[in-house]
# Entry
Amino acid sequence: MPAAKPLPSLRQLRHLVAVAELGHFGRAAESCFVTQSSLSASIKALETLLGRILVERTRRRVMMTPLGSEVAARARRLLADAGDIVDLVAASGAPLAGTLRLGVIPTIGPFLLPRVMPALRRAYPELKIYLREEQTAPLIEGLAAGALDLLLIAFPYPVPGMETHVFATDPFFVAFPPAHPFADRERLTGPDLRGEELLLLDDGHCLRDHALRVRGIGAPPAGFQATSLPTLVQMVDGGLGLTLLPKMAIDGGIVRGTRVQTRPLEGRGASRRIGLAWRPSSARKDEFALLAGVFRDELGTPLPPGRGRKG
# Structure
């Protein structure tokens, strides 16, 4: 029987992935909760084991070799699979127990999670949720790499290679400054927004694309861009233009204390859909369905019958 091939450890691969993602030994060591000397020794041991240089080191920067980048990419998938093995075992016990690394976008997290977390703690006291708030694209990258277990995001948004479960709608409202002509209207439509100064979030926020889709234009109008919904509300309050706000943000009190008025939006694209995304290899799919039910019940705007999507 041939001798067993020496294999790198998951710890070594995790350190390599951290260096590849952060491009800095100090920050990589911090993210892995080890000292920089320990991480450096781990990478060196991995290179010795494989017989190839994976990381180019200079005094000013760290750079992956082409082979190192390929090894790191495969290591991400291997680490994700290892995490799924842990989840498989955990799923054999009580539902929604243990650790869950949840990624959430900034236009959902501050408004939905404060309402949902108390109910989750009561229903599933053994569940420990670690939150990461970021824009959708980097969250999807983190999910694919195994750094996250589940995403809570807004659709439509492409999530290639992932399974999704859309469980609720989140209607849009038009937010406008005081004394605006829209104050005399009960409801508005997308065409009503043409010709108006539409204030948007920065590139990368899916809500920005949703707003442009409602307005029926493919390129952003001239004007300022904000980094958050509270900033947009302050700009509207200052008379700089109008914007779209999701219902969950209004329910969360985002316009409270301002002069901003809102009216419901009707027509095509007048709402976004809220759902979850996970890796197809995850063993916790049934648990995620339970979690979606808690979110749906709290949000109070479920999809019409037959509109949910999973796959």
Q: What stands out?
A: The chain has three domains: 10-80, 88-168+274-310, 169-271. DSSP finds ten helices and 13 strands in the chain. The longest helix spans residues 66-91.
